[in-house]
Specification:
Blueprint (H helix, E strand, L loop, with lengths): L3 H22 L32 H36 L2 H12 L6 H12 L4 H28 L2 H8 L4 H37 L11 H8 L8 H28 L1 H6 L1
Length: 271
C-alpha cells in the first residue's frame, strides 16, 4: 500500500506510452485528412471513437497526439534539467553570498510563465512551432531544477568526505562529478517526474492557444480547441482529449510522489 501511488502512476503512464507506440505502427485512419462528408460521426463502425468537425478520426488523432505530448514533455524537461541542475550545483557549492546571487538570478525566471515565454519566442521565431513549445516550457522549468539541485547540493557539501576530498587535492569539478551529482540524482529524478506532468499540461495549454505545435499536428490541446464549437452537440469530442491529458498528468504526478516516498527515508518512516 505504501507504493500504491507509484504503481498507479506507472500504470497510467504505461497506458499513454503504449498508446503512443502503437500509433507508430498502426493508425485506424489518416489523422490529418479532412473528410467533410464524415464530419461528427458517432462512435462505431470504421471510427471507434467517432470523427471531429472536419471528419478526422478521433482515435487516430489521440494516438498521434500522445506522441507529440510525450516528445514535447520529455525534451522540455530535459532542457530544464540540463540548464537548471548545473546552476543549482554551482550555487550550492559556492560561498553563501555567491550562491544567493546565483539563485536570485534563477528566480527571475519565475516571473515569466511558460505561456508568456511562448508569446515572446513566437514573436521572434514564429508561432505554432514545436521548438517554441519545447523552449518555452524548458526555460520555465529551469528555476525548479535549480532550486532542487541547490538544496540537495548544500546537504551533500555538509558531509565530512567532501572536506576530505578537497584536502587531498581533488578539484571542485571532480567533486561535483564524483560526489555531488550521484547523490542528488534521485532528487532530480523525482523533480523530473513532477515536471513532466506540468510540461504535459503546459503543452496542451500552448497548443490550445495556437502557440505550441503546428496547427496541422494533432495534439490533445489542439483537439480541445477544435472540439469547443461542438461541445454541446457532441461532448465526447471534448471528453477524450481532456481524459488523456488528465491520465498523463496524474500518471506523472503519482509516479513522482511514489519515487519521493521511496527515496526520502522520512516519508518511509511516516508511512
Amino acid at each position: 500500500m505504501r507504493r500504491a501511488s507509484l504503481v498507479v502512476g506507472v500504470g497510467l503512464l504505461t497506458v499513454v506510452v503504449v498508446f503512443a507506440l502503437v500509433g507508430l505502427f498502426w493508425l485506424p485512419d489518416d489523422p490529418v485528412k479532412v473528410q467533410a462528408q464524415q464530419a461528427l460521426l458517432r462512435a462505431g463502425g470504421d471510427h471507434l471513437l467517432g470523427t471531429d468537425g472536419y471528419g478526422r478520426d478521433i482515435l487516430a488523432r489521440l494516438m498521434v497526439g500522445a506522441r507529440s505530448c510525450l516528445l514535447v514533455g520529455v525534451v522540455s524537461v530535459a532542457i530544464g534539467a540540463i540548464v537548471g541542475v548545473p546552476v543549482g550545483i554551482w550555487s550550492g557549492m559556492s560561498r553563501p553570498k555567491v550562491g544567493r546571487r546565483i539563485m536570485q538570478g534563477s528566480d527571475i525566471l519565475y516571473a515569466f510563465p511558460a505561456i508568456l515565454l511562448a508569446i515572446l519566442l513566437a514573436a521572434a521565431n514564429g508561432s505554432g512551432t514545436t521548438l517554441t513549445a519545447m523552449s518555452a516550457i524548458g526555460i520555465a522549468a529551469v528555476p525548479a531544477f535549480a532550486r532542487v539541485a541547490n538544496s540537495a547540493t548544500r546537504g551533500v557539501m555538509s558531509h565530512d568526505y567532501i572536506a576530505a576530498s578537497r584536502s587531498s587535492g581533488i578539484g571542485w569539478v571532480e567533486v561535483a562529478r564524483s560526489h555531488v551529482l550521484p547523490n542528488i540524482a534521485p532528487v532530480v529524478l523525482v523533480q523530473s517526474s513532477s515536471s513532466l506532468g506540468m510540461a504535459v499540461l503546459a503543452e496542451a495549454a500552448l497548443s490550445y492557444l495556437g502557440l505550441g505545435t503546428p496547427p496541422t499536428t494533432p495534439t490533445w490541446g489542439r483537439m480541445l480547441y477544435n472540439a469547443q464549437p461542438y461541445m454541446y452537440a457532441d461532448w465526447l469530442q471534448v471528453l477524450w482529449p481532456a481524459l488523456f491529458i488528465a491520465i498523463a498528468v496524474l500518471g506523472f504526478n503519482l509516479t513522482g510522489d511514489g519515487l519521493r516516498e521511496i527515496i526520502d527515508p522520512r516519508l518511509r518512516e511516516d508511512s
